[in-house]
Amino acid sequence: MALDWYILRVHSGQEEQIRENLEKRVKAFGMEDLITKALVPTERVSEMKGGKKRVTRRKLYPGYLMVQMEINEESWFLVKETPGIGDFVGPYNKPSPMNPEEVEKILRQTEATEEAPKIKIGMEKGDPVKIKEGPFENFDGVVEEVQPDKGMVKVVVTIFGRPTPVDLEYWQLEKV
């Protein structure tokens, strides 16, 4: 029995619902041994909104679903006839399994964000910003560097007519 991972194109925004429908159909048809897992790869993202820190889930690949299965005529037909599923990713509409390294990378990425969510900063180099907290409150500046792993942003502000780089936490800034 060769269980491989495959990618399915699905309706964007309905990935979770389609995954649940597929799992229900697999149970109803008794094919748990042929189709073992369906997964929507997500990561946890930490962001500041309205002064409050929120942790949300973000899809890594919107519009796609990963399925671990053995391909035969019945399993292929069950997946293809599930509402919301377009087709398998592969050449000439023929399913091609994912590389085990790719699968491992996606699964690791999903698990890593379970322990420590990524920080969503939402700013890039060159963006104009206003400092809303700290000793430089109400100063305007330009983003020089973004360090998402630390949650820090280097901003160049003009103090006494001279450009000065200042390291701030991402939540102390707002885009202008």
Q: Which labels suit this protein?
A:
SH3 type barrels, alpha+beta, 176 residues, 3 helices, Alpha-Beta Plaits, elongated, 2 domains, four-stranded antiparallel β-sheet, five-stranded antiparallel β-sheet
Q: Structural class of the helix and strand makeup? A: alpha+beta
β-sheet strand percentage: 35-45%
Number of beta strands: 12
Estimate the global geometry from the Cα principal axes: elongated
Q: Any idea what the radius of gyration is?
A: 23 Å
Largest sheet: 5 strands, antiparallel
CATH class of the largest domain: Alpha Beta
> Element order, helices and strands?
EHEEEEHEHEEEEEE
Strand order of the largest sheet: 11-10-9-8-12
Question: How many discrete domains?
Answer: 2
Uncertain regions spanning at least 5 consecutive residues: none
Number of helices: 3
Q: Taking all residues together, what is the mean pLDDT?
A: 88
The percent range for helix content is 10-25%
CATH architecture of the largest domain: 2-Layer Sandwich
CATH superfamily grouping of the largest domain: NusG, N-terminal domain
Q: Tell me the span between the first and last alpha carbons.
A: 57 Å
According to CATH, what is the topology of the largest domain? Alpha-Beta Plaits
